Task: inverse folding
C-alpha cells in the first residue's frame, strides 16, 4: 500500500468480479494481495510530471535567435502580402520589394544552398520577368497557385 502512495500510478481492482485466477500475490510482478484487492506495483511517472528546470536561464536566447532566423526567411513573402494591392502597379512594386528583400536578407542562405531561399528567389525573379517586363496578366492572376 505504501508503494501506491509514493506518487506513482497504481491500478486497483476487485479480484472477485474480474478474474477467476489465483490471487496475484502468487504471480511475479511485484503484486501483493490484501483483503480481496490487488494493488499493482506503482509505475514511476515522475519523469513526466517534473517541471523542467533550465540550468542556464540564457539558454532560451539561442532558441529565440533560431526562430527569428526562420521568420526572416519568410519575410519576403510577408512583404509581398502586405504591399501587393488591387492594382497592377502595386503588384509590380511588391514583386520588386520582395525580390530585393529575398536577396539581401537571404544572401548567406543562398550561398549555402537553402532550398526555401532559392525557391523564393526563383519565384520572384520569374514574376519580375513575366509581370513587370512582359506584362503577363495570367501570371499576375494565378500567382497564388504558382507559388504553391
Result:
Amino acid at each position: 500500500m505504501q508503494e501506491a502512495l509514493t506518487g506513482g500510478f497504481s491500478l486497483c481492482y476487485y479480484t472477485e468480479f474480474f478474474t477467476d485466477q489465483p490471487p496475484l500475490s502468487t504471480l511475479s510482478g511485484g503484486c501483493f494481495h490484501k483483503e480481496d484487492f490487488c494493488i499493482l506495483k506503482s509505475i514511476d511517472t515522475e519523469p513526466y510530471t517534473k517541471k523542467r528546470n533550465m540550468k542556464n536561464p540564457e539558454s532560451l536566447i539561442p532558441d529565440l535567435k533560431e526562430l527569428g532566423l526562420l521568420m526572416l526567411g519568410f519575410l519576403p513573402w510577408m512583404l509581398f502580402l502586405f504591399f501587393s494591392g488591387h492594382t497592377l502597379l502595386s503588384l509590380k512594386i511588391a514583386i520588386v520589394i520582395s525580390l530585393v528583400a529575398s536577396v539581401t536578407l537571404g544572401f548567406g542562405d543562398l550561398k549555402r544552398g537553402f532550398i526555401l531561399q532559392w525557391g523564393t528567389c526563383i519565384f520572384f525573379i520569374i514574376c519580375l520577368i513575366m509581370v513587370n517586363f512582359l506584362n503577363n496578366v495570367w501570371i499576375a492572376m494565378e500567382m497564388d497557385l504558382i507559388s504553391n
Notes: The first strand starts at residue 12 and ends at 14. The CA atoms of residues 25 and 41 lie 11 Å apart. The beta strands are 12-14, 32-34, 37-39. Residues 115-133 form the longest helix (19 residues).
